[in-house]
Amino acid sequence: MAAGTALVYDGEMSSHKLLWEDPVCDIEVPERLSSCYDRLQHYNLVERCISVSAREGTDSEIMLIHSMDYLETVKGTEKMEEEELQKVSAGYDAVYFHPTTYRCAKLAVGATLQLVDAVMSGKTRNGMALVRPPGHHSQRNAANGFCIFNNVAIAAKYAQRKYNLQRILIVDWDVHHGQGIQYTFDDDPSILYFSWHRFEHQKFWPSLRESNYDAVGQGKGRGFTINIPWNQVGLGNSDYLAAFLHVLLPMAFEFDPELVLISAGYDSGIGDPEGQMNATPECFSHLTHFLMNLAKGKLCAVLEGGYHLRSLSESVCMTLKTLLGDPLPPLSGEMMPCLSARESIQNVRAAHKPYWKCLTYEDVTPLQDLSTRSCQAEEAESTQSNAELLTPQEVGKGNISEVIKTDRFLEMHMKSIIVSLKPPIKTAAAVDESDTHLLPPAVHIPKGLDVKEFKTTISAFDVKLMKEEALSSLLNMLAVLNKIIKKEVINGLAVSSTPSLSSAIAAAHCRKLKVQKILCVFVGDMDMKIELEDGKVLLINICAKQSEQVNTKHNISLNWKEDPETNNFFSATFGFILPVAYSYQPNLTIVIVGPNQNLGKNRISLLISLLQGLAQSQILALIQDTEEKIMQDITNILTGGFIPNFGTYAPDLKENVQMIKELREQFQQEWKLLQCSAKNSK
Ligand code: Q9C
Ligand code: ZN
After folding, report:
1. Using CA atoms, how far apart are residues 323 and 302, in angstroms rounded to an integer?
2. Omega before 354 within 30 of 0, i.e. cis
3. Pairing of strands 619-624, 50-52
4. CB atoms within 10 A of CB 388
5. How many CB atoms lie within 10 A of CB 361?
6. Which among 18, 29, 1, 172 is positioned nearest to 96, based on CA atoms?
7. Which residue's alpha carbon is nearest to atom 11 within ligand 1?
C-alpha cells in the first residue's frame, strides 16, 4: 500500500495580486500562500512530506472544463496594462486580474494535476496542493469569486481520463458554494459533489437558488450533488461533525469512491471575515481523518478560500499533519449541533432519501427552514463562558478587533491542543511468543514486565486459579496500556484468552492512573466484567445475542442482527457509535474484540480506524486469542499501514436500522451529536 504525503507548492503563485482598490477582492492576498508555508515550516511538516513540483496546466487540460474562448480571454490578460485589466475584471463577479494571473492560474491547475498523479501513480498515499488563485467558483466561460480556472473540476476530469476512474468524491468544505464544480458535474453520476456553504436563506453570496438542499443534481446525476446550506453564521465543530456523520459519510461510503478530492477552503474556519463561522483548526483534522478511510486512502486536498491568515495557516497545518498520520488533537467545545444546523441536515437527508440506500429506512420528513434563533443565542443559553479563555463562540461574535481576537485565541488554543511529543514508536503489542511474527517490525513489544504496581491492580481480580502464562499475558497487556497512558506510544494491542477480564483490569488500571473518561467498545459475545459505578466508563456493547440489561447513558448494548450478506454496519458506525463517542470525548479508548463478532472483519477495522479520531488516537485493542485472523488487520490499522475496503454495498438490515433509530431517539438528549433532525429536542 502506498505511503507518504505529497506537498505541492510553488512560491510563484504569490505573484498574482490586486493592483487597485477593491473592497470585495482585497482579502485574496499573496500572503495566504506564504503564511501557510511558513506555518508548515514552523511545525516541521514540510520536511516530512514528499515534495512534488508544480507545473503549468496545458491548454487541453484547461479545456477539459473551460471553453477555448474563455481560455483565450485569460491568456490575453498577460500583456495588459492596469486599466485594461480592471476592465476585464469588471466583466466578472468578484474577480481581479494581474499580468501574472494567467501564469499563476496555469500553475494552480498543474500543481493540482501533479498531486493527482503522485497519488494515483502510488508515489504517495495522499497529499495537499497549496495553490492560488483558487478554483471552485470558476465556470466554463467565466471567472468568478477570485477563481480563474477550476482546479478541482479539471483534476476530477483528468483523473477520470488518465486513470479510468468510475467514481470520484469531491468534498468542498470551503464556506462558499462551489457552484462552478456543481454546474460541471450536475448530470454526472460518476462524480459525487458535496458542498456545505453559508447560505442564510439565499442572502449570502453567490445567492443562488441552486445552492439549496433541494438541488441534488439532474438527469442521471440526480442524487450525486449534495448541498448543505447553512442558514446561520457562528456554526462550529459540532455542526460540521454532525453534517459529516449524518449526511456525507453514509453517502460517501455507499458511493465508495476510488479517489477523494477536497476543495479545501478554510474560510469555514474560525475568525474568517467571509464565513463568520467558528470551527477551530483541529476540526479539519477530524474531517480529513474521516475522508482518509475512503478510496483506500487516496486523497488530494487542494486549497480554495481562507482569509484569516492565522486561522487559515493553522488549519492547513492540521490537515497536513493528519494526512501524515499523526495522532489527532481532541475536538474542542461542547458537542451540540445547533437547531439551525440540524434543520439543514434534516432537509438534506429528506431531499436525498430517494437516491441513497443508506437513507431508505430513515424516516426523514422534509421541513421548511423554520429556525430563526441564532446559534450564538443557543450557546449563550447552554454554556457559561470562561472569563480566562475565550471560547470559539465568543471569538466569533462580530467585533472590530475580531482578527486580533482570533489571533490571540489561536495562539493559546494551538498550544493547548497540539500533541507536542510525537512518540517515535506508534504501536506497542502484547502477544504470544508464537504470534510475534505476525507483527510488523515497527511494533514495540514490551517484555518481561513484572512490576509491583501492575500486580496489585491484577490481584484485586479473581485470578488465583490462573495459569502462569495467562497471568504474564495480563501483565504484558498492562505494560502496553501503561505506555499508551504515559504517551510513550500512541496505541497498542494485546491478545488475551480472557478479553473481558482483561478489559476490566485495564479499566481498573486506567482509574488508578486517573484517566477521566474511558470509552469501551465491545464487539462479540462476552460477559461484561467492567466496573461502571463511578461513571468513568462509557460502555458500548455490540453483540448478536439479546441482552436483558437495560440501557443507560453509560451502558448501551446494540443487539446487531446477524446478516452475513449485507452486513455493512455503517448505520451503527455513523448513526450511533461515532456520534456517542464524539459527544462523550473520551481520554482513552479500549476496543475489545471477542468471539462471534458477526460483523465482517472490515467493519471492525473501519470502526477501529474511525475511533482513532477520539482520545488523541490513544487506543488499546484487546483481541480474543481465537480471533487471530482479525489481529493482523487491527495491527495494520493501528500502525497506519492499511485502510479497509468493503466490496459491494448493500444496505443494513431494516431491523438493525430500526434499532439504531430507536437508540438514537432514546439517547439524543444525553449524547447530542445523535441529533440529526430538528424535532425531539428543545
Ligand atoms: N458582494 C473563495 O473563497 N464575495 N471565493 C463577493 C460580493 C466573493 C470567495 C461579495 C467571495 C469569493 C474561493
Ligand atoms: Zn470560499
Report:
1. 13
2. no
3. unpaired
4. 6
5. 18
6. 18
7. 145
Residues 6+ apart with CB under 8 A from 552: none
Which ligand has its closest atom nearest to the C-alpha of 95? 1
Residues 296/647, Cβ–Cβ less than 8 Å: no
User: Are 552 and 580 within 8 A, CB to CB?
Assistant: no
Q: Ligand 1, atom 13: nearest CA belongs to which residue?
A: 305
Specify the 3-state DSSP secondary structure of 546. coil
The predicted complex's ipTM stands at 0.99
Query: What 3 state SS string does 561-590 have?
Result: CCCCCCCCCHHHHHHHHHHHHHHHCCCEEE
Q: In what order do the strands lie in the sheet with 5-9?
A: 50-52, 5-9, 126-130, 299-303, 259-264, 168-172, 191-198, 225-230
Index of the ligand 1 atom closest to the CA of residue 145: 12
d(CA 109, CA 149): 7
385-415 residue pLDDT tens? 333 445 666 555 544 467 888 999 999 999 8
Q: How far is the CA of 6 from the centre of ligand 2 (A)?
A: 23
The residue type found at 453 is E
Q: Are strands 537-543 and 518-523 parallel, antiparallel or unpaired?
A: parallel
Can you list the alpha helix ranges (DSSP code H) found in 210-368? 237-243, 249-255, 281-291, 309-323, 339-352
Quick one: CA dihedral 463, 466, 470, 471, positive or negative?
positive
**Cα 409 to averaged position of ligand 2 atoms, centre (Å):** 22
Residues 6+ apart with CB under 8 A from 148: 74, 95, 101, 102, 105, 108, 133, 135, 138
Q: Is 145 in the pocket of ligand 1 (CB under 6 A)?
A: yes
Does the beta carbon of 24 sit less than 6 angstroms from any atom of ligand 1? yes
Query: What values do phi and psi take at 69, rounded to 5?
Result: -55, -50
pLDDT for 374 equals: 66
Q: What spacing in Å lies between the alpha carbon of 421 and ligand 1's midpoint?
A: 39
Q: Measure 205 CA to ligand 1 centroid, in angstroms.
A: 7
Kindly list the catalytic residues.
137
- Write down the pLDDT at residue 24: 98
Place of cell 495467562: 470
Residue 91 has pLDDT above 70, yes or no: yes
- Going by alpha carbons, the residue nearest to atom 8 of ligand 1 is 145
Range with top average pLDDT, 278-287, 436-445, 589-598: 278-287
Preceding peptide of 651 cis, ω within 30°:
no
Model confidence at 682: pLDDT above 50: no
Ligand 1 center from residue 18 Cα (angstroms): 14
Predicted confidence at residue 398, as pLDDT, reads 45
pLDDT score, position 36: 98
DSSP state of 304: -
**If you take atom 2 of ligand 1, which residue's CA is the nearest one?**
305
In short, whether 176's Cβ falls inside 6 Å of ligand 1 is yes
The alpha-carbon radius of gyration of the chain (Å, integer) is: 25
pTM above 0.80, yes or no: yes
Q: Cβ atoms within 10 A of the Cβ of 383, count?
A: 13
Amino acid letter, residue 47: E
Distance from C-alpha of 414 to C-alpha of 314, rounded to nearest angstrom: 8
Q: Does any ligand 1 atom lie closer than 6 A to the CB of residue 267?
A: yes
341 contacts 334 by C-beta, under 8 angstroms: no
pLDDT band at 544 (very low <50, low <70, confident <90, very high): confident
Nearest residue to 33 via CA among 64, 47, 54:
54
Question: In this predicted structure, what is the pLDDT of residue 102?
Answer: 98
- Cα torsion angle, 125, 128, 129, 133, sign: positive
